[in-house]
Design brief:
This protein has about 160 residues and is α+β, with helices and mostly antiparallel strands. It is built from three helices and five strands, in the order βααββαββ.
């Protein structure tokens, strides 16, 4: 577990969360919903990168966090400093190999998701949700790599 306090971040100015079925169709739905929500909020970051990050996290949840009778949850939150928090929660408490950065198999389709998230500037952490699994969190700054908490970044002014 890398984020026991679940991070110290700027205050949340906009937030949306929803549950999705633990099925591959959830990946497409979360991409559509993320693109629509960030566009409606006029989030100043790269919406396509955020959508790709959501897609990777939801794909991981569907493949590694599936448990009968449960669903996954997606939370999007824009912070006062305009950073975006992307939380994907699933019912499995384990996160095998989180700290490892192995090379993906040659020609294989798996093993690239978290590396891609990091390459897009996402700061990845995770934490347990008592008796309910885990949440994988990515913090994405609107203009590139995330500044350390408490430093940098202009204030986000939501459109009214």
């Amino acid at each position: 577990m890398t984020d026991p306090g679940q991070g110290v971040y700027a205050p949340v100015v906009r937030e949306r969360s929803a549950g999705y079925p633990m099925a591959t169709g959830a990946v497409r739905l979360t991409r559509i919903h993320t693109r629509r929500q960030l566009t409606l909020w006029a989030w100043p970051g790269d919406v396509q990168d955020a959508v790709l990050i959501v897609s990777e996290l939801v794909t991981n949840a569907v493949h590694h966090g599936r448990k009968a009778g449960h669903e996954l949850w997606l939370r999007l939150a824009v912070l006062e400093d305009a950073s975006l928090l992307i939380d994907v929660s699933d019912p499995v408490e384990a996160f095998a190999g989180f700290g490892a950065h192995p090379e993906p198999a040659e020609g294989g389709e798996r093993g690239r998701g978290l590396r891609l998230v990091r390459d897009l500037g996402g700061e990845i952490t995770w934490f347990l949700r008592r008796h309910r699994g885990k949440t994988v969190r990515v913090r994405l700054a609107p203009g590139g790599p995330v500044p350390p908490p408490g430093r940098g970044g202009g204030a986000f002014r939501p459109l009214v």
